[in-house]
Every structure is written in C-alpha cells, then in structure tokens.
Write a structure and sequence with these properties.
Length: 449
C-alpha cells in the first residue's frame, strides 16, 4: 500500500473519532467521510507501520444509513462529522463507540444501551464559539468554524444546529466591524482586535449573552460603540461583554471579563431550578439533553437513598448539586473556577436553597483535606478525566455510590478500570446524545463502592 494509491473497499465500522474503518491487506484504514457499509473508492493519503489514512473519492455503493446532510456546509465545516448518517443509526454508532472503549480500554464486559436521544437535533446548540479573522487584501471579516485539522476559518452564514439569531448576530459583526475599525485576529502575528465571538442563548428565556474576545487588555471607545450596536440591534440580546485575551494560545477565553452593556449573565433552567450563567462559566451546550442527564442522576439518588449527603465535585456552577439539593440532607460542591463559584452562590439565592456549600478549590486538593464522608459523590471532570490521586480521594470520601459523568468514553473507561481494581463495581453506564451529528457522546456511570 502506497500514498496516493486508489483502492476500493467496504467500510466496516466507525472509529471513536468519527472515521470509517476498513481492513485491507493487513492494514487498518481510517477513512474520512465514510459511513459503515459504504463501498468506496478512496485515495490513500498517509501510510504508517500498522495503519493508513484515506479520503473518499467515490461512493460505489451507499450504505443504507447514509442520508443527505441538512447543512450545505457539512463537508467543509467539520463541526458535524456524522450529519450524513441517519440519526437513529448515529445513536447505535455512539453506543458501539462507548462499548468498545469500556471493553478494550476498561477491560469491562458491560453491555451499553442506546444513548438517550436529544430532544432536539436541530437548533440544539446554545453556546457557540466562532474564531474571527480577516482577509489580507479586502480586510473582510471572516467568522465560523475551523476546517478539519487546520486553522482555516470556514465563513459560516447559516448553521442549522444553533438558534437562527446566532447567525444574525454573527452577520452583523461581519458587516459592521469595519465601520467601527474593528479588525479580525491574525493568529500568526498575534495582531488584530477581535479573536472570537462567543454567544450563549437561553432555552427557557430566549435571552442572549454575547461576549467579544479581544486582543487587548482594556476596553477602547470604538469597541464600546460596537458592543452597543450589537445590543441595540437585537431585542433578545440582554448583555454584551468583553473578554480580554492577549496570549499566544489556543485557549479561547482570557481570565478577565467586563460587561459593557446590560446584565453580565443570562438565566437558564434545569429541572425546576434556575441558574445564572456568565461569560466564562461552564454550562452544557445542549440544555434540553442536559436536562435528561440531571433527571437520570436525580432519579437514581431518589430511588436508592433517603436524605443522603452528596459531594458534587468538578461542579461548575453547582448544577448537579443544586438539582439534587431538594432530595438531599446536604450537598458540598467543589469547583476551582472562581467565577463559577460566584454564579453558583447567586443561583442558590435565586432558588432559596440553604443546604448546599460552595468551595472554590481544586478538587484533588479538597479531597486531601476533607474529613467528612458522603453517601454519594457526583463527579463531572473535564475530558482528560481524573488522576489516580483524585480517584483515591473520591474513594476515601464516598460511602455508597459514585456517579461519574463524562464526555470522553476513553478516559471514562480508563478511570472505571482503576476504580474496579480498587474493589468498586460498575452497575450501569447510560450514554446521552448531547452533541448531535458529532462523534462525541456523554455518559453517566453508576459505581458501587
């Protein structure tokens, strides 16, 4: 097998990164844009010792699960890798991805059920983060997602997985930035004004928080006027904030925010609770699907415990802690982001909750010093999962169950393997489709100590 060679083969399955997998002459071939059961003609783009990469040149026979993408930009954008696959079959593929990780990485023989569907599969994404640049000659502003495996921006005019007003806000920025002498960012030279546009919209209220991430350490007058234009142009925009980020980094948000006009938050509901979300606080991008996860966790606790003590670690704005507070004796929420802790305290006041304690601390450090033990620990770590030190700390503090919520099947499987080696039992793993049309999948694992 050689690079630039053309080969015909049938796609067998999907990888955990959304690539089709085929086997030819002892090579595993990862194929971009392929659906299981497709027969394709593909061009080999890379050859390694044990595998190769390829791109589809021609679909000789379509998979019965292949459909026409509802977005015209699907092939070039890269955000919705699986949109050309029937939605119900996407769920089956995600089930297989999770089961494969749990069995091969975790070494656990656990049958995984289908993911619980997202209530919406269009207009579901209520947080968007668009990078901004500009053309070299005409200085036209570009904003959208990066092309796969590049930092080339696909200038997206309409995205059907987010509310339409987000497209309208982005288009206003493209059209009006030049009038306020706001330039797009050049990451090669670290010059230009506007790095990203971040939009958070509320399902429950319809209100929108717009954050302009700028390559500056302070607000300048033309930026204030530009922010006011955005605010005045849309009735549902309740605030425009500025985030300052001058670092040479791929990290989107800097450490400092300033609200230019309106309130510096929007409110969202999960179950029957109200949450305040700020410019830099974490909150799920698909609130309706997130609601399914919180209900699943709450129902498990309600059906198995009476008035338990709960540890809510990697808590963000204490969403889990607040959602289960009314069925718990007391809840301790731990989060290292200071702004998230502040928002959590505000949300406690809104909901008249008095049995949740908020700690602004690194989770691993908190585990070392905490003396109390809890009936249940809910953990929702970042994609990298937990360290062994953190898992040991959680085990030390938990008497009954750990509920591990994860957006990464691989690190979840790794951590479950460690917990099982420490004597725990994984009772169930339930996937949820939080990120429709992508290979990403959320999971909630119930673990008995």
């Amino acid at each position: 097998m050689q690079e630039n060679e053309f080969i015909e083969f049938k796609i067998e399955k999907l990888s955990n990164l959304g690539l089709g997998i085929a086997k030819v002459d002892g090579y595993v071939i990862f194929v971009e844009g392929a659906c299981p059961l497709d027969t394709v003609k593909a061009k080999i783009t890379k050859v390694r010792k044990n595998f190769a990469e390829a791109k589809v040149v021609e679909i000789i026979k379509s998979s019965p699960y292949r459909v026409e993408p509802f977005c015209k930009m699907q092939k070039v954008c890269g955000a919705c890798q699986l949109q050309f696959i029937d939605y119900d079959y996407q769920l089956e593929l995600k089930r297989e991805i999770v089961e494969d990780a749990i069995q091969k990485i975790g070494g656990l023989d656990i049958k995984i059920p289908l993911p619980i569907k997202s209530p919406e599969i269009k207009n579901y994404r209520h947080k968007i983060q668009y990078p901004v640049s500009q053309t070299k000659v005409s200085k036209r502003i570009l904003s959208g997602y990066f092309k796969p495996r590049t930092h080339e921006i696909v200038n997206i005019k309409h995205c059907p997985i987010q509310p339409e007003i987000c497209d309208e806000i982005i288009e206003l920025v493209r059209e009006q930035a030049k009038n306020f002498e706001i330039s797009g960012f050049d990451e090669k030279t670290n010059t230009g004004d506007l790095r990203h546009i971040v939009i958070r919209s509320s399902v429950s209220s319809g209100k929108i928080l717009v954050t302009l991430v700028v390559n500056s350490t302070k607000v300048f007058d033309r930026l204030k006027k530009f922010a006011k234009l955005i605010y005045d142009s849309f009735n549902d925009v309740s605030s425009v904030c500025i985030n300052f980020n001058t670092k040479c980094t791929n990290v989107i948000l800097g450490e400092k925010n300033e609200c230019i006009i309106g309130e510096d938050f929007i409110e969202e509901k999960l179950l029957d609770k109200t949450f305040k979300i700020g410019a830099s606080t974490f909150f799920q991008v698909n609130p309706l699907s997130a609601n399914n996860i919180f209900l699943y966790v709450k129902d498990f606790i309600k059906n198995n415990y009476q008035n338990p003590t709960v540890l809510d670690a990697y808590a963000g704005i204490a969403t889990f802690g607040i959602c289960v507070s009314d069925i718990s004796k007391n809840v301790v929420s731990v989060e290292e982001n200071k702004d998230s802790c502040s928002r959590a305290i505000e949300s406690l006041k809104i909901n008249n909750i008095n049995n949740v304690e908020i700690y602004n601390s690194d989770a691993a450090e908190f585990f070392k010093t905490e003396k109390r033990r809890f009936d249940i620990s809910i953990i929702d770590p970042p994609r990298k999962g937990c360290t062994k030190e953190s898992l040991d700390g959680i085990l030390k503090l938990t008497k009954g169950h750990i509920i591990y919520v994860s957006c990464n099947p691989a690190t979840l499987a790794r951590d479950l393997k460690y917990l099982v080696e420490k004597g725990c039992k994984v009772e169930t793993i339930q996937p949820f489709d939080m990120f429709c049309h992508t290979y990403h999948v959320e999971n909630a694992a119930i673990i008995k100590i």
